[in-house]
């Protein structure tokens, strides 16, 4: 099982988010699943990888060359796929992953989440798409999605393809399909 985690690489966030990423990574490693990430070593992205490796989990990073050039890469990853663009990065992550978990994050995390969620709705893949949000950071987003559905902009059945969870255990159970 390979689980992709979308999350922040911002160094200016509350440490509780970094701790959450480490906890998720450790839980993935404990299960002997592989972690797929954006291949960075700072903030939440680095923490999820360190967490997985702390429990002898395999980590697979996918990172554009431009980010490697500014010393952003997690060179401790078991595999580090260096690609040419963000679009290639997302395609590779989608290709090699069995499930997707979005942790709290900013625009990049949201962009990854929305792309993989839309891909699920359009049947480009049939893999679980999960939001893990124990701190209610995305509560306004959830309200917005509900409102967009009420107004007819989100199609029936689309909202149900995104699983909102509040604990690591719940998110991993959804990833496994249980």
TrEMBL record:
GO process annotations (BP): cytokinin biosynthetic process
Residue runs in coiled coils: none
One Pfam family matching this protein: Lysine_decarbox
Organism: freshwater metagenome
Listed SUPFAM superfamilies: MCP/YpsA-like (SSF102405)
Taxonomic lineage from the root: unclassified sequences, metagenomes, ecological metagenomes
The protein's name: Unannotated protein
Record Gene3D superfamilies: 3.40.50.450
Example of a GO MF term: hydrolase activity, hydrolyzing N-glycosyl compounds
GO CC term, one of those recorded: cytosol
